[in-house]
Amino acid sequence: MATIPDAYLSLSDDEARERILKAKEKLGKQLLILGHHYQRPEVVAIADRRGDSFGLSREAAASDARFIVFCGVHFMAESADILTSEKQIVIHPNLNAGCPLADFAPLDQVEPMWERLVDVLGPGRVTPVTYVNSYAELKAFCGRNGGAACTSSNAHKAFQWALERTEKLFFFPDENLGRNTVKRLGRQGLKVAVWDPALPDGGLTVSQMLETDVFLWKGHCHVHTWFRPEHVRKVRELDPQAIVIVHPECHEEVVDLADHAGSTEFILKFVRSAPAGAHIAIGTEVNMVKRLAMEFPDKRIYPLARSLCPNMFKISLQSVAWVLENLGEVNVVKVPEPVRSQARVALDRMLQLAA
Ligand code: 13P
Ligand code: SF4
Q1: For atom 4 of ligand 1, which residue has the closest CA?
Q2: How far apart are CA 104 and CA 347, in angstroms?
Q3: Which of 149, 49, 46, 32 is nearest to 90 (CA)?
Q4: DSSP class of residue 275?
Q5: Fewer beta carbons within 10 Å, N or C terminal of the chain?
Q6: What is the pLDDT of residues 132-145, one digit of tens each?
Q7: How far lies 195's CA from each of 24, 59, 106, 209, in Å?
Q8: What percentage of the chain exceeds 70 in pLDDT?
Q9: Which ligand 2 atom sits closest to the C-alpha of 309?
Q10: Domains, the chain
């Protein structure tokens, strides 16, 4: 893995920005820079498109740019590579920017679990669905087993789809998004069980496996589980007119106490359409909340608590300048076959399910 040279690390933000803008001008339509909502404000400012995981996957799939620089975490760049043609080149400014939530479900733990479950249930009774915050290998596993990927904006549609396809559903790797999505389905009597990979048989008895409708892999996002019910109660006490809006990766108790929950794009749209003077406390990554506060100064926007995604933060103007001036030579993300085609099946289903 190439490391960013000191000559780039020592650039000031202004110098790096100037070099990025020069590269953008030179490359024109050959280059597309995508920026997730959690990126630092200065990185979002140089992106051609910003969005949530779903929107950016869709942008990548629709783009014919020769070079796509993905400012987000690694799984997002991997998905962009899978969704683009072989000729297009996807580049990630910092290959060390992974997602700890994705790390919860490595394929070497998922596959033996799956074999055991199919052994107990019999074949064709459960559909695997993975949150897009996962490795390409897990998406490929879902693709070859009749399943799909989803994002926080269409998880409910993926759950509905899976439960129409088979009696049961297995969701990886975010237990909280899974719980919050089951609740959103509003279907009474669905039996939910957590599969803990640290325990034999996930900690379930055979009869529990037989009676479960929705299995949730035990994993979480540390950025969102930081938010606690006390944070919501405190905001309500100090600022009674505040509307609380959170990301569905938060604990179920936090989502239950909030006024609204949704993806980063949902949060942006909510803030944009709120009337001037509105007070909005937001439970998601702090860089996004800070940016929204700057962009909508006529509203009082503040974090429910301060929680930063250190991996999203690893992308800087300096790392973007470096990959742009060494285009196609450093930090290219290429998912090999057959993982690529199998993961594409799961990602295409995700795009078809819409947001
Ligand atoms: P969104 O799909 O809402 O953009 O979320 C991505 C993410 O990583 C949340 O932690
Ligand atoms: Fe992963 Fe959480 Fe960071 Fe999103 S906020 S990229 S889920 S660690």
Answers
A1: 52
A2: 20
A3: 32
A4: P
A5: N
A6: 999 999 999 999 99
A7: 47, 34, 14, 10
A8: 100
A9: 3
A10: 6-97+312-337 (3.40.50.10800), 102-222 (3.40.50.10800), 229-303 (3.40.50.10800)
The residue type found at 245 is I
Burial environment of residue 25 by CB neighbours within 10 A (0 to 12, 13 to 18, 19 or more): exposed
Measure the CA–CA gap between 281 and 93, rounded to whole angstroms: 31
CA 28 / ligand 2 centre spacing (Å)? 31
Q: Separation of 287 CA from ligand 2 center, angstroms?
A: 12
Q: Looking at ligand 1, which atom is closest to the CA of residue 247?
A: 3
pTM: 0.96
Confirm if 285 and 38 have CB atoms less than 8 A apart: yes
Residues 6+ apart with CB under 8 A from 289: 282, 301, 302, 303
Q: What is the DSSP string of 13-30?
A: HHHHHHHHHHHHHHHGGG
Q: Which two tokens stand for residue 21?
A: 């803008």
Closest atom of ligand 1 to CA, residue 56:
4
Kindly state if the Cβ of 284 falls inside 6 Å of ligand 1: no
pLDDT per position as a tens digit, 316-343: 999 999 999 999 999 999 999 999 999 9
Q: Determine if ligand 2 sits within 6 Å of the CB of residue 47.
A: no
